[in-house]
Design a protein that fits this description.
- With about 80 residues, the protein is mostly helical.
- The chain has one domain: ACP-like (Non-ribosomal Peptide Synthetase Peptidyl Carrier Protein, Chain A), CATH 1.10.1200.
- Helices cover about 50% and strands about 0% of the residues.
- The protein has 3 helices and no strands.
- It is globular, with a radius of gyration of 11 Å.
- The termini are close together.
- The mean pLDDT is about 95.
């Protein structure tokens, strides 16, 4: 999971134009990173291109960065 955490953090930081250090496990995607539904959908496409299976992701149940990583690794 640590490898996935770093890859997803790098992708998210690049997507948002922030430093990786600004994203911690408890960082909330919508509140702290100001991601709206369109941004979440766009980021799902980026994750798909990076080789992740996002078919099981439900952003109504994912609030934090760590929850996103756990959801991505749950089906590995």
């Amino acid at each position: 999971m640590a490898n996935t955490r770093q890859k997803v953090k790098r992708e998210l930081a690049d997507f948002l134009g922030v430093d990786m250090e600004d994203i911690e496990d408890e960082t909330e995607l919508t509140t702290d990173l100001h991601m709206d539904a369109v941004m979440l959908t766009d980021f799902m496409e980026i994750l798909t291109k990076a080789g992740y299976d996002v078919s099981q992701l439900d952003f109504t149940e994912i609030d934090t960065f760590l929850e996103l990583v756990e959801a991505l690794t749950a089906h590995e």
